[in-house]
Specification:
The protein is an all-alpha fold. It has one domain (3-211). It has helices at 3-14, 25-30, 35-59, 68-90, 92-98, 109-117, 124-154, 162-165, 184-187, 189-214, 218-221; strands at 156-157, 174-175. The longest helix is centred in the middle third of the chain and has 31 residues, at 124-154.
Length: 228
Amino acid sequence: MSEYGKLVKEGLWSNNQALVALLGLCPLLAVSNTAINGLGMGIATTVVVTLSNGTVSLIRNWVRQEVRLPVFVIIIASFVTAVELSMNAWFHELYKILGIFIPLIVTNCIIIGRAEAFASKNPVGRSLLDGLAIGIGFTLVLFTLGALREITGLGTLFTQADLMFGEGARNLTLSLGDDFKGMLLAILPPGAFIGLGFLIALKNLIDRRATQTKTVPVSAAQPEPTAG
């Protein structure tokens, strides 16, 4: 696998910040009550982490070690402000739903962590790809968790899709029917913890199965010699 392929695999799966590092849990658990909310928050975070990584990489040789963290925070805050104003202008209703969690992207440990651990030590191309992969991996978890909670708790999927994709997306909403009685726990905060726990368990199970598949038993690789 190429170097860039490894970066993508780590961001999406092997080092998924939500399922492995368990970072960014505050927005992950708070806004993932529907698929669209999770997708909106994930895209906003992806834009910030990608642009922040690229900018930090560009200036890494000019920033002194003593002030690097305050500089990184200023860069991240600038991009968060730009994303917040853009969402307020073009996706106002979705912006109101996500509320305080948009400006709180500044404090997301994923973004400052990648800036410090990766972007400050690598060239621009690799840093941009790392930020994009990490952001998409985080978005996928947000979207999946939101979809599961929405289906289980409300009996719908892609409700309020028009907030992100326009009026034409109202027909995207899927429903299990008016008679479906959802599980209230799923859309409450405890449901977010339980759902995330199931996703982590599923990832660990898949990784374990993959490891076992790659492992060749010694008896199979080296058959016992026959007498004679």
